[in-house]
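DM from R.C. (forwarded with permission)

"hey, sorry to bug you on a friday — could you get me a structure for this? deadline for the figure draft is monday and I only need the backbone to look sensible"
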Amino acid sequence: MDRSPPKLILGAGYLGGRLARLWATRGETVLAVTRSTAKATALQTAGVHPVVLDMAAAEAPARLAAHGPFSAVVWAAAPDPPTSPDRRRTTNIPDGRRRTEAAATGSPTDRESFFESVLRRVREVLAERTEHWIHISSTSVYGQQAGEWVDEATPAEPKSEAGRWQLAAEQLVRRSAGGGRLAVLRLSGLYGPGRLLRRIDSLRRGEPIAGDPDAWLNLIHVDDAVAAIDAVVSADFTDTLLVSDDEPVPRRHYYTRLAELAGAPPPVFDSSRAPERVQGLGKRCRNRRLRTELGVPLRYPTFREGLRHALAEEPPR
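My reply, with the result:
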């Protein structure tokens, strides 16, 4: 049994849950935070110590700190600002007021309250009790729209609302660095088993895909994202890391291959209604640091290998 301080995963969702299971299989003590009792039961069965907790609750930071100190803390909570559908709920605010309109209005005050009540408070309380903090961010912080290559040295100048909030979160954790080490991981689009069914159903119905078919997609299979986080912790990495696979792919090629594998008609695109996050041709993410400095071997270096695996592991419909 590992005797080092436990690891804490803040957000045991699609990514965090897999990371927790990996560490638990090695005999490490892993705590994982979730609001779901069903997820908690599944995590416990896998050898993870679940913490059923709403991190927006006023008592959350103190409850988490009581489990420390921690050898590593991974912030893998849902990164969406409170305008997203999954944030349309009442949130506890530190001063005791309760706001139910945060998701509906998305006003700057409500958004600041969201970060104040979650990331800022948790980070400030746990920073001094954490040896290594790993903050999961997104490549949406890069605002390039003409197919330019980007890497860790590229200035982060987001154009989308999601990108601006990801960058704000990065800046927040950097300002409250505490005494421990800090790594910021900017993940490309996460995919894998269980993440494709909705799009496959849409393809089978012949529904148009919003956006330019020639725009670039930057992807990372969830298993490779887990491997990257694990490598960062093992190497005591303390910098910014772009986590993406070896080959950015035009959206047309990606969805055509997905349709072929799923037995669906060829994809149809509607460039007239591109979502905010898909403007112009987008950017292309370079993963040189991931591959050379950290030496992470990708099991799914391109979408071709990743899609085959993801569909093979999809639950039957």
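R.C.: lifesaver. The radius of gyration is 20 Å.
me: no worries. Confidence is low (pLDDT under 50) at residues 80-109.
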